[in-house]
Every structure is written in C-alpha cells, then in structure tokens.
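step: validate -> pass
step: tokenize input -> pass
step: predict -> running
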Amino acid sequence: DLIFPPEAAPEIPRVPLDDLREISGLLTNAKRRSRTELEAKFKGGGWQFSALATEHDELWTPEELEPHAQVAERGYQALKWIWQRRERNVLVVAHGGIYHFLFKSPGHPCVTADPVTSARFHNCEFKSCRLEVSSEDPLVFTIEVLPNGHTACVRGGRPRL
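step: predict -> pass
step: emit ->
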C-alpha cells in the first residue's frame, strides 16, 4: 500500500496468496492471521481476501517448520497462478524466504532463475523481472531480470534506485 496506495489505483487487484508466504510452522510469526481479522484490518483497501482458501491458517503447525521442498512447491504453484492471470504486468510482494526456497539450490525443479534474480533479496528490495514458460514444457518457468530492468530498495515509501 506504500507504493501503490489503494486510492491511487483502485482498479489494481490486490490478491493475497497463501502460496507466497514465508516458510510456515513452528514459529508464531509464521502463522497467518485469520481471513476475518485481515479483512477488518485492511478494510477498504481493495484486498481480495476471498482468495485465501481457508479462514484460518491451515499451513501452520506448532510442531515443526514446513519442509523446504514444500515451500518451493507453494512458490511454484503461485507462479502458475500468476502465469494464468490476464494481467501482463504483475507486482508480486513476498518475503525473501519464499524466493530463496523457490530459486536456490535445490529450489524447485521446474523453475530456473538468472543469478541476479536468484540472489538474496535485501530488505524492501524489488526486482523487475520477466516470467516465461518453456517452449518445450509448459510447466517449466524461467525468471530473469529485465534487460533494462533494475533493482531498488524502498525505504520510507519511495524507491531508491
């Protein structure tokens, strides 16, 4: 909401996805708030909380952290969802951990990312990337920073390039 305030661009859908969450389980800060609580907290912000599959966080368990391969699979499922959207430009906001498990070794077997994209995300960093599907296998994705793209860190709500 800092970069694209809802009132400045009400036509932009804001869709929270459980698949783009950080690793889940064990840690209480890894547990998602209930859908009802999120709707109350972000009322009028244009968020489509109906996209959350369940009212309560069913990914989180108090016993153990989610396996890394499962986190990578969730990230992959989010990429498939994004690819199927009608929009051509999509802003994806997520914790750097999901990107780490999706892009880094071993990562997901159906996702490859260039070195700049797969490098650790810094706090509040954004990267302009292109998502492409393989011409040989429609279930394989390649992600790369755009040739004229940039990375930037956002502090205080304004991009610093």
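step: describe -> The mean pLDDT is 87.
step: cleanup -> pass
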